[in-house]
Amino acid sequence: MECIHCGNLTRVTNSRSSKSSFSIWRRRQCQSCKEIFTTTEAPDLKASIVVKNIDGTLEPFSPDKVFMSILYSCNHRKSPLDDARALTNTFTKRMMHHINTGIIEKTIIQKICSDILMNFDIASHTYYNAYYVRKKN
Ligand SMILES: [Zn+2]
Fold first, then answer.
1. How far away, in angstroms, is 39 Cα from ligand 1 center?
2. Are 126 and 102 in the same domain?
3. How far is the CA of 10 from the centre of ligand 1 (A)?
4. Residue 105 in domain
5. Which domain holds residue 106?
6. Cys staple from 71: which of 22, 32, 84, 132, with CB 3.0 to 4.6 Å?
7. Could you report the per-residue pLDDT of 58-100, keeping only the tens digit for each?
8. Distance 23 CA to ligand 1 centre (A)
9. Strand duo 58-60 + 24-30: pairing
10. 40: CA distance to ligand 1 center in Å?
11. What is the whole-number distance in angstroms between the Cα of residue 12 and the centre of ligand 1?
């Protein structure tokens, strides 16, 4: 990867896998200007996973939609953004166990979110089920 400051080549000086998500964190140093910056490598879920809706139509998986549905469900809490980030990581890990062919049913996405919220906060769970599970898409 090129240096974000000067555009010259960089080398990796440190890296580690994230325990909470499918990502690798890397520290890079520019071979020319010696500046240091950090990158994260993660799977492109939008490009890798297709959602099968209840009516049979297909659409690219949207991590943003999952995140937003969880965020809205946590809106009454003290730190909904932090909660939604952590819960979305949990969601992603669980979803990966259900993917064999690159296609996941919408109902499975809803069930995973619903189960996670049930164990987290009953008000969030109730909100999620009222606003997201009964919709067709
Ligand atoms: Zn540089």
1. 14
2. yes
3. 7
4. yes
5. 45-133
6. 84
7. 999 999 999 999 999 999 999 999 999 999 999 998 998 888 7
8. 24
9. unpaired
10. 18
11. 13
